[in-house]
Amino acid sequence: MALSVVDLYKSVLPRTNCRDCGFATCLAFAGKVVSEQYPLKNCPHIPPEVLVASEAELAEQYAKGLWLRRDLSADALRWAKERAASLNPVDLAARLAGEIVEGVGGQELRLPYFTGFLRIEGTEIRREDGGELGRYEQVFILNHLAQGGWRRPTGIWKGFIEFDNTVSKAVTMQKAVEAPLAVRFAGKTGELRQRAEAVGATELALTGGTAQISLLLVPLPRIPVALLFWDGGGDFPAQAKLMFD
What we know:
245 residues, alpha+beta, 3-methyladenine DNA Glycosylase II, Chain A, domain 3, 3 domains, 8 helices, 40% helix, extended
């Protein structure tokens, strides 16, 4: 029988909240054990025979993924790899403005990425300079392989919220990217420009724009991104805005 957090708390743990396990309550400890595979033996007050039986039950439910906290980045990467698995590298090179090169295991797609290059073999991606790629970074690139590059940039800039079906994503963009950028570089426009230029940013001339800094970044061919920054002052806080073509 699988052990839920409540089962573990009621039937296995002493429910004394002694904190000998390092947690404030037995219930908190139970949640960590069930959802994150925290060692049950870290509770020193479980009888040995109960510990052995409970660990066996937990091992079974861990193997089935029951009640485990999901690793969302791993799930997203797995899904993105499935989408891109059947793509033809030669077709991708023409569509995404990359090139086909010979790698250790055969043909690879070489794709400009900021100031460097990516090497892509199947759904495996690595930086040509040996640098690391995060999971969500790989998800972004794989999604671009699957559906990007069909349309050429037009020179018309839009905020994220102007695209279809992106209202919730626009809120996330503002909270997770734009607001932290504004806070981090308030009063530090020189550093912002320096860091942006280090990843290939160039000046962007926008007609009628009021931003103190307007920069163009091209993370991948045919994906221009504009970074606008207002340093604020007085009663007005700094603001950052990303625009897309």
